[in-house]
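Handout, section B. The chain below has 242 residues.
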Amino acid sequence: MNLHLAIALGAMLAGFVQGFSGFAFGLVAMAVWAWALEPTLAGPLVVLCSLAGQFMQLRVTKLRDTNPIAWRYIAGGLPAVPLGVLALQWMDPRVFKLGVGALLVGVASLSLLWRDLFRLRHASSRLDYVVGTAGGFLGGVCGLVGALPSWWSSHKPIDRLESRQALQVFFTVVHIVTIGVYALRGLITTTTLGYALLAFAAMYLPARAGATLYHRLDAASAQRAILGVLLVAGVTLLAVNR
């Protein structure tokens, strides 16, 4: 697939999903970008576009009003970001694709098949630090900071709005720090920024369309469809890279 077409297609699909669901830009984009892009380009692109998407929908919130869950995620996640960036630079492209495929299959399967099985009545706040660490590491590797925290938060016995706020603050902070580490490691180049501008232009209208449709469609059915696409993409990545 042509590189520019792959970037535009991944950004359009991921922008729509993020606009609709509020997360999962990286998961959807990687389902396309892992095929055509080198890990050291795909990772920074996901982070830059995910941050842009968060700013498009983030409501202004005073930091002192941010709930404690976000701070626990941040405390666990930030130290893990540099380790993820180092892993990205050492990673073989085939291992990268296998890892993304396994993550897609794991998150989609757990969410589709075993949601009720993992519904928690009580969740230790200490596990928030662990989940934040995993999110920070994956954010550094390939921008997929939201994969595990989103799944974990959906099973915690907390209000949906509280969960969404915590995740948005966590994602935004980790993405900003990750971009800084990428820049220090020389991974944010003029070429990367040029591709990012292409992705921004491609994702803008789909993201707005997704946000509009959020209020018109059955959210549960749409979420299952999105997870089904991620599952197929993950299985395909694993199958062709054995």
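Note. The chain has a mean pLDDT of 81. Compare this with the example in section A.
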